[in-house]
Specification:
The model has no long low-confidence stretch (mean pLDDT 94). Helix content is 52%, strand content 7%. The chain has a 4-stranded mixed beta sheet with strand order 2-1-3-4. The longest helix is centred in the middle third of the chain and has 21 residues, at 89-109. The radius of gyration is 17 Å and the shape is globular. Helix 1 runs antiparallel to helix 5 (89-109), helix 1 packs parallel to helix 6 and helix 7 packs across helix 8 (191-199). A hairpin with a 6-residue loop joins strand 1 (162-166) and strand 2. It is an alpha+beta fold. It has helices at residues 12-30, 33-36, 48-64, 74-83, 89-109, 115-131, 143-156, 191-199, 215-218; strands at residues 162-166, 173-175, 185-189, 209-211.
Amino acid sequence: MTDTPEVRDPELPGRLLAVERDALVPLLRSRPDADFALPAAACPGWTVRDVLAHCSAALMRVVEGRLGREAFSPESNDRDIAERAGWANARVVDELERGMTEAGPVIARGDGRLDMIALGEWVHAGDVRDAWKEPGAYAGTGLPDALTLLARITREKGHLPLHADLDDVDDPVRLGAAAADGPPARYIGGAATLLRLYAGRPVTGVTYELAGARETELNIFG
């Protein structure tokens, strides 16, 4: 059984962002402008460009310390996207690259409450790959760090206990709070599918087993 260390690794969110930056930014720079206008099915009502504009804006809020009460609310997200409506796609990608580089040290100096932003950015990179039908959506080199961060976040949030036997990870993973009265929920399947479930993303066309919990109960972003 793989357990998340009780002590927070402050470098993990930045490491996850940097790994994803190095994989995602070259992909973004290789695609034509038309691809940025494609819908992002995982984020209804948003295009790929909207997802990227949201991601870059969120990271720059972290970098610049603009973290007021309404930061990251749906209304704030919509304003951030609208503010970038006149930007070239390349400028959005430039800002995203800067944010994925500079936000990590800021998050590391914090108390852990911003760690979830790194996981959200990693998930949104999967949304982009999914929209473009690229391989490796919600997987790739950053998956081990994403799983570690997900396990710690779900534990600290007191999320429902879940024991995950992953097809592509050697050791089982324990997520959520410790099971107090009865066995934890059980998941059998791929790691990327598990990340999809916890992010509230579609899981059509994949095979997995989930017992003791409903899919909607896993969503940490809902």
